[in-house]
């Protein structure tokens, strides 16, 4: 790993950022990890798609395929030499979120996703009811020159109503996993992103959840 890369992590969350997250809203940071790294990471995922390393996404505790989503995904491993920098930066983000939100975020997992033309992900939460180990979601977008007419927006269902966010290159969206219901609208062009889910020390026992039935 390259420890110096952690210095490129985001600036600390402000008090207003923390208040927004606590209220069930989003924090959006553009120019998050660097445009050059975002473009290079996109090229890696394009290669993975060509090599067949992206699989149909699964939903739920058993990883079953569900009609709620139609994207292609792959788990990003910390020892993957093509994406080492990305993992270092997501680790820096973990440290910053732990400090600024005063949460015990001790683990995280990163998933790459590709939405082919027409792919979407229906309304959902990122944490199961009763499973408080998944605390924070951070989505990093890898799409240069994305146009609104291409769709693929993240639609977040916030207290004041739905808000759509374009998946622009090097944009990072952060929210509390249990609080923000969200979806991905159908994409009319290939759409790439990486999502990191930050967890507590140990998962709690899982209970049946009708949202994922």
Distance between the termini: 40 Å
Series of secondary-structure elements, N-terminal to C-terminal: HEHEEHEEEEEEEE
Main beta-sheet strand count, sense and barrel state = 7 strands, antiparallel
Oligomer: single chain
The order of strands across the largest sheet is: 1-9-6-11-4-3-2
Output mean pLDDT.
86
Unreliable runs: 1-7, 61-65, 203-213
What does this structure look like?
With 213 residues, the protein is an alpha+beta fold. It has one domain: Jelly Rolls (Sandwich), CATH 2.60.120. The chain is 20% helix and 28% strand. It has helices spanning 15-22, 35-51, 84-101, and strands at 27-29, 55-56, 72-76, 107-115, 121-124, 134-141, 154-158, 161-165, 172-176, 181-184, 191-199. The strands form 2 sheets. The protein has a 7-stranded antiparallel β-sheet with strand order 1-9-6-11-4-3-2. It has a 4-stranded antiparallel β-sheet with strand order 5-10-7-8, with no helix packed on it. A hairpin with a 2-residue loop joins β7 and β8 (161-165). The longest helix is centred in the middle third of the chain and has 18 residues, at 84-101.
């Amino acid at each position: 790993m390259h420890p110096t890369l952690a210095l490129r992590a985001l600036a600390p969350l402000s008090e207003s950022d923390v208040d927004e997250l606590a209220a069930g809203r989003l924090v959006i940071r553009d120019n998050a990890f660097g445009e050059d790294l975002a473009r290079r990471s996109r090229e890696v995922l394009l290669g993975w798609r060509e090599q067949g390393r992206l699989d149909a996404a699964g939903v739920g505790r058993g990883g079953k395929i569900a009609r709620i989503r139609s994207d292609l995904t792959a788990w990003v491993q910390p020892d993957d030499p093509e994406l080492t920098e990305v993992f270092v930066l997501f680790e820096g983000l973990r440290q910053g979120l732990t400090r600024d939100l005063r949460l015990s975020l001790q683990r995280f997992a990163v998933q790459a996703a590709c939405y082919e033309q027409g792919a979407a992900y229906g309304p959902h939460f990122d944490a199961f009811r009763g499973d408080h180990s998944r605390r924070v979601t951070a989505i990093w977008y890898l799409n240069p020159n994305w146009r609104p007419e291409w769709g693929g927006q993240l639609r977040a269902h916030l207290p004041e109503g739905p808000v759509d966010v374009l998946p622009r290159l090097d944009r990072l969206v952060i929210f509390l996993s249990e609080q923000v219901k969200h979806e991905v609208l159908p994409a009319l062009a290939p759409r790439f992103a990486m999502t990191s889910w930050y967890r507590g020390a140990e998962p709690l026992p899982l209970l049946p959840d009708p949202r994922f039935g």
